[in-house]
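Re: weekly structure request thread

Next one in the queue (246 aa):
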Amino acid sequence: MAVCHGRCVIGFLDHSTNNIIIDAVLTDVGRSFLARNDGSFSIVKFALGDDEVDYSIIQKFGRTVGKEKIEKNTPIFEAQTNSNLALKHRLISISNPNLVRIPNLTLSGDGLDSALTTLSLSRTGVGARRSLTVTQALANENTVDVELRDQAFLVKVPNNFIQISGTTPDNIDSDNIATYVLTRDQSTTAIGGSKVVIELQVKAVTDAQFLVFGDASDKTNISSVVTVSGINSGATKDFNVQISKT
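Done, posted below.
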C-alpha cells in the first residue's frame, strides 16, 4: 500500500496470473485539490506501508520460511479513498544494518487513567485543558538510533471537539479530523529519544453536539480518539478521549 502525500492511494489488486495490477484512487483531499483546477494538485512524495503484514509469522517460522509464508499468503488491501485509514504502518529506510529494535511512543500527563490509554476531559473548568507529553521509548536498548529520533510529530484530533492550543492545524480533512505538525522539544531523553508536549483543549461543545455525537449509552459523554505519529520513526500512539458534559 502506498499513500501519495495524502492525495492518492495506490494498492495492488489480486490476480490469478503473474501480472502486477495497480489500483490508484484519489483521496478526498486529492479530489478537493483536483477540483480546484488551478495546478495545486501535484504529487511530490509518497510513503509505503505494510499494514497487511503479520510479523509474528516470522517469529513463529523463522526468517526464511516466515518470509515465504508472508509473501505467498498475505492478502493485499485494495486502495481506499480515506487517507486516515489507508496507511497506519508506514515503512522507513534505515542505514544501520545492526538495528534490531525501533522505538515506540509513551504517553504521560494529567487526566490519564491508570492504563495510560484514556484521557478524561470536561466541557468547562480545569479539565477542559490537559497537558500531555509524548516520549520516544525503547525496550532493552540504551540508545535511540539518530535516524529514528523524531524531529516532528503528527497529531490527529477530532476537530469538532478538540484543538491543540497555541497552533493551527496543517490540514482538516472531510471527516473533520485536524492534523497538526508539532516540532519536538529541543532537549533529548536519557536514551537519545525525542519528546513533545501537547496542549489539548476542548472547544465550545454545545448540548446539541452531545445529543448527536454522545455515546449511545450516555449522552453526557463524547468518546473519540487522538493519534500521534513520529515523522522519522513511523511509530504511532493512539489513545481514547472522553469529554464529559459536566
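The chain has two domains: 2-86, 104-244. The mean pLDDT is 85.
Next request, please.
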